[in-house]
Amino acid sequence: MTRTGLRRLGTLLIVGVVAGTAARQYIEHRARRETQRPSGLIDWSQARAVALRVSKWEQAPVDDLVFRREQYTRLVKQSEPLIADYLGVQLPEPISRVYVHDRREWIEANFTSFEQLFQPIEAMYARNSAQSSVALLFGELNGKLLGAQMGMLLGFLASRVLGQYDLSLLSPDPAARGSLYFVEPNIARVQRQLGLNDEDFRLWIALHESTHVFEFEAYPWVRQHFRDLLQQYFDLLNHQLEGLGTSLPQMLARILQSWGSGQHWIELVLSPEQRAIFDQLQAVMSLVEGYGNHVMNAVGKRLLPSFEQIEQRVAQRQSTKNLIEHIFNRITGMDLKLVQYQQGEAFVNAVTEARGVAFAARVWERAEHLPTLDEIKQPETWIARMDRM
């Protein structure tokens, strides 16, 4: 079960890694073929068609849409002052962009965001294809293949995601605000399967997603920092695509040197420069998710009589994933992110227990206060660094 759509941001990095790896793998033998005008990097029509088919959206309608819209709006409004009181910070404006989606609507909303997120990669491809035979790698067939892969990924997620904070990351408007999505058919299915209270379970989800609004809108620099890291990642990917012929031996050497080290396959194919940016992005996402869970737990325990029941049944469900879900998580890198999100929650819990809520909130003061991945694993090192600042 995916609690938040922020995890899908990690898929952007994964697709970038896969695209770069595929290019390096095949450039030598494809470069000798006759030149032709390439199509787009990703066939978005193909991606949409596959995503809708995989999601089986027509089998999961929203029952009583008007009631659910009013319910989620009320639950978010109820959550906002509780989170503000716990964190000691106010939002610049009340949360107002609350949407109840079926799977098809969630897919469409995310394709709009993904097309924006992939614009830099599409631009890289267009620039390189105009002056290099690398364009042969991404003809119409490959565009459809990447589109099908993207569609399978989002279609699979659409059948499982419950709530999402879409932070409008690459909007040209610096004051753009994010939106909260609640995928009601999935929420209703899980609630029924686990035998949970209708109102309590939806408030539990609303608390978590509303916390993400505070993380990015009460501290506006976080959004720009995340955007800057993504741009740095794109720049490195562009450099890699321009040097396809020489980067393959280096990539193979990294894999051979690190094989058996216990690292994830995604980490093995990254260059040192990419790995540094990737780790920073993962650290931010780990913190964001971990902080969301921490606040949800702290507020939810006081607010919801059935909180412990919800936590126990959800944890049990997550521990009994089927083989397909395990394979999906491994291939897409979701297993790597899930572990880091758990570490993010443990980090926030440890810091709060040692020094209090206000001290933990120092992570949001400025970029220099963000913990590294190593500090997330060892909270005492971040505490010591903060004491020296």
> Whole-number average pLDDT?
79
Kindly, what is the distance between the CA atoms of the first and last residues, rounded to a whole number of angstroms? 39 Å
Approximate helicity band: over 70%
Query: What is the spatial order of strands in the main beta sheet?
Result: 1-3-2
Task: Work out the strand percent.
Answer: under 5%
What order do the SSEs take from the amino end to the carboxyl end, as H and E?
HHHEHHHEEHHHHHHHHHHHH
Total count of helical runs of at least 4 residues: 18
Q: What's the quaternary structure here?
A: single chain
Q: Any idea how many domains? A: 1
Instruction: Give me the count of strands.
Output: 3
Instruction: State the major sheet.
Output: 3 strands, mixed
Radius of gyration: 21 Å
Structural class: mainly alpha
Walk me through what this model shows.
The chain is mainly α. It has one domain. The protein contains 18 helices and three strands. The protein has a three-stranded mixed β-sheet, with helices on both faces. The longest helix is centred in the C-terminal third of the chain and has 32 residues. The chain is globular and about 55 Å long. About 10% of the residues have low confidence.
